[in-house]
Structure formats: C-alpha cells, structure tokens
Amino acid sequence: MEFLRVVRRRSVLSETIYILLNIALAVVVLVSTISTNTPWLGIALVLLSKWRVLAVRPRFWFAHIEANTVDVIVGISVVVLMYLAGQASTGNGLGAQIVLMLLYVAWLLFLKPRNRRSYVAVQAAVAVFMGSFALESLSYEWPSSLVVLVLWLIGYACARHVFVSHSDSDTRFLSLAWGFIFAEIGWLTYHWTIAYTLPFGSGLQLPQASLLLLGVSFLGERVYSSYMKHQKLRLNDVLLPLLLVVGIIVILMTVFDSASIGSGV
Fold first, then answer.
1. For 112-142, how does the pLDDT look when each residue is reduced to its tens digit (9 = 90+)?
2. What's the Cα-to-Cα distance from 3 to each of 9, 14, 17, rounded to whole Å?
3. Rounded distance, CA 184 to CA 171, Å?
4. What's the number of domains the chain is made of?
C-alpha cells in the first residue's frame, strides 16, 4: 500500500509539472514575441520544446520528426499569428495575442495528448487551419514555389497524422498524394489571395484558402473513413459532408466581401 501511495504521489507531481511546463511555454512564447517584436525567438522556443524528438538513436530521428510535425506546425503558426497581431495599428493586438496564447495552452494540455481517432482528426484539422492561416497571412510577398512547398508539407504531415491512426499500409503514398493536392490549391490561391476581416479587429485577416483547405480536408477524411470502415465508399457517409463543403465554398466565393492580404485593407 505504501508503494501505491508513492506511485500516486509521483504521478500527481509529474502531471502537475507537465501542466506547468506547458503553460510556461505558451506564456514565454507570448512574452518573447511581444518583447522582441519578431517571431524568431518564439519559433526557436517551440522547436527547442521538441528536444526529445532527437533524444533517440539517429536512425529514429526521421520517424520522430514526422510524428511531431503537426504539433510543430501548430506551435509555429501560433507564434506567427501572435507576431502579426502585434503589428496591428488598431490597438487590439494584445488581446488577440492573449487569446492565441490561451488557445495554444488548450492545444498543449487538452487536445494534443489525445490519441483516439476522432481527436487525431481534429488535431490534423487544427494544424491545417492554423498552418495555412499563418502561411497565407505572412507569405503574400514570398516566391510562389516556397508557398507551394510549405503547403505541401502541411498537407503531407496532417494527412499522415490521420492515416497512421488507421494503421494504413499505404500511409506514405496517400500522404504524399494529399500533400500534392494541398500544393495545387496553394498555387491557385497564391494568385488569388482573398481574406476576410475578423470582427475583433486585431489586424489579422482570415485567408479564404484556410477555409477551402479545411473544407477539402474534412471531406477527404469523411471519404477515407467511410472506405476504411466499409471497404467501399458509401454515398450516405459522404453526401452530407460533400453538400456542406460545396455549399460553403460557393458562399465564400459569391457572397462575402473580401480583401487581398497585404493590400492594407
């Protein structure tokens, strides 16, 4: 019984330390981004927080990097969006930065540790949205080839994250293919970069490409899940997601007012 009490105390202590360290990471990322007025130190802290990825034999490095890429995408995206929010001339940038910090804490403590398939799919969706949001908001003056390459990486990493949870033998091939779909969408949206002003006026603009990529990813996940569950594609499983995604895309392209990122609107 004494042994069980010791184990329980150690478990509570380790859990408390884990929570405090993750909160500290989010806070330090925020403070470093505000104090330096650049994203670089925050990005470095996110990368340093993944030091355990390389704390194995070198032959396992690539596999560990792949497995942690979604987390890195979310972390770097949060830092970039914090930085962009801080460049706002409206005076509401600090509020947006604090909200982003709290969302990052929620990611680290509540969503990232989950390993059920439904949570894994949500993790991938968050990475798709946050990664494309940060990239499209920052890269309007970048070469198109670099934007396409980064979007390919986001698509590959997020697709692999989902496929691995299903133990699919074709994970690498399917992930590469999904990455190319993201790259194609990235190339098209690079030449037609549309964004929507957010209501809280932080200076951040929501790229239309992020909504398109999120919708396409949701539809792709539903199609894949239907096939894996029934060994065939069932129309009943994908009809409603298809209609939802198509409807959202049509509305985005025909109804809402828009502004080009980087235009100063």
1. 999 999 999 999 999 999 999 999 988 878 8
2. 10, 16, 21
3. 20
4. 2
